[in-house]
UniProtKB/TrEMBL annotation:
Superkingdom field: Bacteria
Origin organism lineage: Bacteria, Bacillati, Actinomycetota, Actinomycetes, Kitasatosporales
The GtrA/DPMS transmembrane domain, residue ranges: 28-155
Family note: Belongs to the GtrA family.
Name of this chain's protein: GtrA/DPMS transmembrane domain-containing protein
Amino acid sequence: MPSPTQKALAKVPGPLRPFLVQHRSLVKFLVVGGSCFLLTVVINYGLKFTVCQSKPVVALTIATALATVVSYLWNKAWSFRSEGSHKEAIPFILVSAIAVGVNDLPLLASRYLCNLREPHVSHFTQEVADFMSGMILGTLVAMAFRYWAMKKFVFTTPRAGGDSAERHTEPPARVG
């Protein structure tokens, strides 16, 4: 009986299948990241237009931190198929803290180094600059850092018993 992953792969156009199989953890990481990006946008703007009106970096930091918790749970369970050990908690917290800072840097630079904020620019220009620097550029740079760091330092032990499309298998050795 085919696994859910095998059923899903059967629906993908033939030329794309080998790429998806070869880079499945990256593809899953990007799906989780895209979902968490949307969550970050919602939380960020919810905070930015209510309780953090004059503190856009605080709003982005809180939104990123909350989405990071969701990202951890999804990446642990699905993208990297990590076993349920607690040994990844400390490296995850360290990587995540650095990544939140990396995510904030473009917004800090835009707002306070380039002065892309009111009264130096219009409100519309400020909001476009905030979105492009904090949400787009910051997220892209932090995402690249997270993928590399999570794979290298956090989720290093694959989960046993994943379905056959999830495992890298070697052909059996010949005897004789």
